[in-house]
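Supplementary Text 2. Reproducibility record for the structural model of the 192-residue chain.

All settings were left at their defaults, and a single model was retained for analysis rather than an ensemble. We include the record here because the model underlies the residue-level annotations in Supplementary Table 4.
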Amino acid sequence: MALDKLLFFFRRKDGLTREEFHRHYLEQHAPLGLRVTVTMAGYTVNLVDSDSDVDAVTEVWTASTADFFDPSKSFATEEDAKALMADHDSFIGPYDAYAVEEVIVQGGLPDAPLGAVAPGAKVFVGYADASSVPAPPADATYVVDQRVVQTVMPGSADLAVVRTIWLEDPGEATDLWAEALVTREVRMKPPF
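Retained model, structure tokens:
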């Protein structure tokens, strides 16, 4: 079964440090989301370490984007929907969201333990023009292009492609790509 994929670029609420945001996300929000969201087939949280106003990039796989965003279908009960949204609003500020189509460009997905930080770095680079996406770096272990099929959140940045690159060592990632988001990947639920 083919799954829809969503990308969220989350920013923390004013008054929170990045460390507080990351801790709340992994210790409270992600476990709650896994417990109450019935339309989530896969879930990965990527904690941003590079200098950026984005604090996390979240990947969600679902059988239906429309159902995922419909609280009456995405949660077993109205109380579950309210609990997740109250927690979301307690620490997440503005965010961008996109429905994307994954295209494997190079390599094979590195193994990563569920619920733990994966080794190496996962780098996200956005491109407004799909024709400007360069060849992948030679030292990448895995490269996926996520072609934007729909901007889900009004006001989101204009993107055509979000390239994801797995590197054993992030090295000069932010020097190579000025707007790169260098992250630590935490797979919460694999989509396969």
